[in-house]
Write a structure and sequence with these properties.
The protein is α+β, with helices and mostly antiparallel strands. It contains eleven helices and seven strands.
Length: 375
């Protein structure tokens, strides 16, 4: 005969199972409603598990009541009733019904759901293949467009170089009738600006793809500032602007040597000066400063007294093709690549670039370059 303690333990175990399976049934029901939308196959599996859990719950409830009645916690006659043969067969009948129910669910839903799921997967694979083909064609079209743009830009640069060379030749001779030195200067300046835009496009593409090479040398940064000012002298004269180069101290003049690509630095300075000239009011002053910095760097700043840049634009001013204004002052063209070129060129040489601006008070663009002694 079973001991009294064992009967109590068995009753407790069955009631624990009843609580656990009851909670699982609630969870299965909730998950079935949610997963039915996502995947019919998974929903069918959950339904099968639900039926099996219900069978286990009813069986546990039967034996839980049986053993609890033997402990005396519920009327003992329940034990005598449940012990009768016709009631002992209840768990077996429940198991049989659950088995038939599971077979019915599997036979009616499982194979149909699996077939639908396979059909859906095939459709997804077909759509993915079409998307991959479309992406491939789009990539080929973009590559073709990039190649065509590259060839066109190269052809534009050759043509512009010929125009500039012709204008330089004319400047050396007496202008023919109807032409003036001012008109030739304007045509040459315009051609050089367009050439700079073309060069910016080519160089930005090269630097972004990692194909740009540098010709590093040591030189005083004030020399490239003077060269850039000489190129922009007609524009300065046209707007009656004064350009002032200010060295921080005697050390700046002595230690203002950098190790960098001279041509790239000259174009960076020219781009920043061109922007300063573009947005400066007539009769104002553009200031260029050279300041030594710790850890072997030289800082160059270009300050104008134009309209300034709003704070929300300052973080994006160096992005490719980003322009603060839709219109360009004085009708001067812009590609939105000048400052992008400056950022890439300076960072490629180990320096930094930034802007400080207050709307209505002007802007100060600055960049740093390493000195020959920089580590």
């Amino acid at each position: 005969m079973e001991s009294e303690a064992l009967i109590w333990v068995t009753a407790a175990v069955y009631w624990c199972l009843i609580v656990i399976w009851g909670g699982l049934l609630i969870l299965y029901w909730r998950e079935h409603r949610r997963l039915r939308v996502l995947s019919p196959v998974i929903a069918t599996m959950v339904a099968v598990v639900f039926v099996d859990a219900a069978r286990t719950l009813l069986e546990s409830l039967y034996f839980g009541v049986w053993y609890t009645a033997r402990t005396g916690l519920v009327p003992r006659y329940l034990f005598e009733v449940l012990a009768q043969p016709q009631y002992v067969a209840i768990p077996k009948v429940v198991n049989l019904l659950a088995a038939f129910t599971i077979l019915g669910v599997v036979g009616r839903r499982w194979f149909a759901d699996v077939k639908a799921e396979m059909t859906r997967h095939k459709e997804v694979e077909r759509l993915y293949g079409e998307l991959a083909q479309a992406h491939k064609k789009l990539q080929e079209a973009q590559d073709a467009r990039a190649a065509l743009t590259h060839f066109m830009v190269h052809d534009m640069r050759v043509s512009l170089t010929s125009v500039i060379t012709g204008l330089q030749t004319i400047q050396q001779w007496e202008p023919p009738g109807g032409l003036t030195a001012e008109m030739i200067d304007a045509a040459r300046a315009g051609s050089e600006r367009v050439l700079d835009m073309v060069n910016d496009m080519l160089d930005v593409a090269r630097m972004e793809s990692g194909e740009m090479t540098l010709s590093l040398e040591e030189f005083p940064v004030t020399e490239v500032i003077d060269e850039a000012l000489a190129v922009l002298e007609p524009s300065l004269r046209q707007k009656q602007l004064a350009a002032r180069v200010r060295l921080a101290d005697a050390q700046a003049e002595r230690d203002g040597r950098v190790r960098a690509d001279r041509g790239k630095v000259r174009r960076v300075v020219a781009n920043l000066l061109s922007n300063a000239v573009k947005f400066s009011p007539e009769g104002s002053t553009v200031e260029i400063t050279v300041t030594p910095e710790p850890e072997g760097f030289v800082r160059v700043g270009v300050t104008d007294h134009g309209p300034g840049i709003a704070p929300e634009h300052q973080s994006r001013i160096f992005d490719r093709f980003y322009q603060v204004q839709a219109g360009v002052p004085n009708g001067r063209p812009g590609s939105g690549l000048g400052l992008s070129f400056c950022k890439l060129a300076v960072e490629l040489q180990g320096g930094r670039i930034g802007v400080e601006s207050t709307p209505g008070e002007g802007s100060r663009f600055w960049f740093t370059l390493p000195t020959p002694d920089a580590k």
